[in-house]
């Protein structure tokens, strides 16, 4: 900004990304995801171990690795958290590049290949901004399954916490 540059945020708003991610997950994947988050939070590495891991992986985009690992269990994560955002950022960056003679873009390493892949491709940005339509009413079976899944998550968390 000191040199007359303009800052343009080129990523899709996080609220839209998260709502699209959650909306694309089935009830089973949502329950499994909540369990995964609770379980993982109980077994976080120590700060020293975490620093060592980060030094060992100096050349790797950690967020992309986490998303890729989680996408094995939750396929819609990779689609909404990485691929859709790559398309959105590529489109936004191309628009800015056409309007300005010089552009500096700062993006996560995990997005570079996706932005290149989508460069100058026709992208329906409006479609990437659409929020999922809420499903009409929940059946009794879905409500019971949700209660059962949440109860399992809570009970497992209490059991594991008690063993510490």
TrEMBL record:
Segments passing through the bilayer: 143-162
Cytoplasm keyword on record: no
Keywords assigned by UniProt, alphabetized: Membrane, Transmembrane, Transmembrane helix
Pfam families associated with the record: TraB_PrgY_gumN
GO cellular-component term (any): mitochondrial outer membrane
Keyword Nucleus tagged: no
Superkingdom of origin: Eukaryota
N-terminal signal peptide: none
Name assigned to this protein: TraB domain-containing protein
Native source organism of the sequence: Aegilops tauschii subsp. strangulata
Taxonomic lineage of the native organism: Eukaryota, Viridiplantae, Streptophyta, Embryophyta, Tracheophyta
């Amino acid at each position: 900004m000191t040199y007359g540059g303009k800052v343009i945020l080129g990523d899709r708003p996080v609220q839209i990304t998260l709502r699209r991610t959650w909306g694309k997950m089935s009830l089973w994947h949502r329950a499994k995801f909540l369990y995964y988050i609770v379980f993982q939070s109980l077994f976080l590495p120590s700060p020293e171990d975490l620093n060592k891991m980060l030094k060992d992986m100096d050349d790797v985009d950690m967020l992309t690795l986490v998303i890729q690992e989680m996408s094995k269990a939750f396929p819609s994560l990779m689609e909404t958290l990485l691929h859709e955002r790559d398309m959105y950022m590529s489109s936004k960056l191309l628009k800015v590049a056409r309007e300005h003679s010089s552009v500096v873009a700062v993006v996560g390493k995990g997005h570079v290949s996706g932005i290149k892949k989508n460069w100058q491709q026709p992208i329906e940005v409006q479609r990437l901004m659409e929020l999922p339509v809420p499903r009409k009413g929940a059946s009794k079976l879905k409500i019971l399954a949700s209660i059962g899944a949440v109860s399992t998550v809570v009970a497992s968390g209490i059991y594991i916490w008690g063993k510490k």
